[in-house]
Amino acid sequence: EGEMIYTPVPGYCGEDTFTLVVSDGVVSSYKVFHVTVEDQTKPTVTITQGTNQWNSFLNTITFGLFFKNTIDISLTAQDQGGSGLKSVQYYRSNSPLSLAELQNVTDWNTYTSAFQITPVDKQKNIIYAKATDNAGNVTVVSSDGMEFDLQNPTIQTNYQKGASTMEVTVTDDGSKIDTVVYSINEGSDIE
Q: What's the pTM value of the predicted model, to 2 decimals?
């Protein structure tokens, strides 16, 4: 009369055996048990773009990363549960998707090596990465929004010859104005 609890070593999966010996002080009985330990640990996956890294699913996507040149994307995946990685895939979207929406995506790309995204003005990009281990555990992560801005800011003025003042307006429809620098060759102060 008693109970025994089998607990595998953390991270172990596969076949295991143990022997149970029971004695009443006079006679002993034994039995060999065969168990299959399944991987219950989800794999990890990280999306890397330059110095930016994402390793979780973002429920809120902002488009605060702006680029004018080709961007390189790499994925790194690991399985800590012991069954090994079955697949690493990615999906590129121009709008945020929920986990439920991603379950309906059928055209995931198989990841084999780093890939590039070529600039197209005002193109928005979100990278979703999916790692699946051999036990069927799945992890999905997302990047934040990345957008290409290939247009220069515009400068407009209402200057008229002989005027003592003028108004200058700077605008940018893409990544917005970062800095405005001006210089005066000769003349008076600028307010």
A: 0.74
